[in-house]
Structure formats: structure tokens, C-alpha cells
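Worked example

This section walks through a single chain of length 104. The input is the sequence exactly as stored; nothing has been trimmed or padded.
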Amino acid sequence: MDFESGEQQTAKWLINLFLDGNRLNGKLVITNKNVYYDIDAAITSTGIGSADGLIKISRDDISKVEAFTAHWIFRRFKITLKDGKEYVFDRGVMPVGSIVNQLR
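Given that input, the structure is written out below as C-alpha cells.
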């Protein structure tokens, strides 16, 4: 993953992303300018398949970051962009507070 000039990584996590009805597994990389999601695998009802791709979100495009719990135990957070697009990340039972704090 290539960063922009002056861009520095501040944090990195392995995490799932729910996007367009799909569950993806990959690395969430946060920098001082952008948020990247480097896709490693797609998880479906029939198994885990190889997947590849990179999602790049400018920190300037983020309007809201909120943490929530699903099904009483699963820790998740949502990034909402100024254009209304949403990205929902899932960390299982692990806390998401440190990630949310990095994004705010």
C-alpha cells in the first residue's frame, strides 16, 4: 500500500467489513490523512474465498464514526461519509473503542 506524500500510518487492525451485503476480512489502516481497508478474503455462507482490493477513505470525507453492539455481544463501528455512504466494521467480541478514538 502506497501512502501519499506526508502521510503516516497511525494504527492498523485485522477486522471484518460488511459492505454491499458481503462480509470481507482484511486490514484496516489509519493514517493522518486517510483510512484504508486492504481486503484479504470474502466470507460467505459456503466458506471463505480469496478476495483482493483496497478501499480508500479520505478522513476529510468522514462525517461521523459511531460504535455499537449487535446481537448483545458483537462489537461494531460505523463510518458515515458526508455523501451518506456507510461502512460497518465488525471486531467480534473485541472492543472497538481504540479504533473509534483513532478515527475521531
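What to look for: Residues 97-103 form the longest helix (7 residues).
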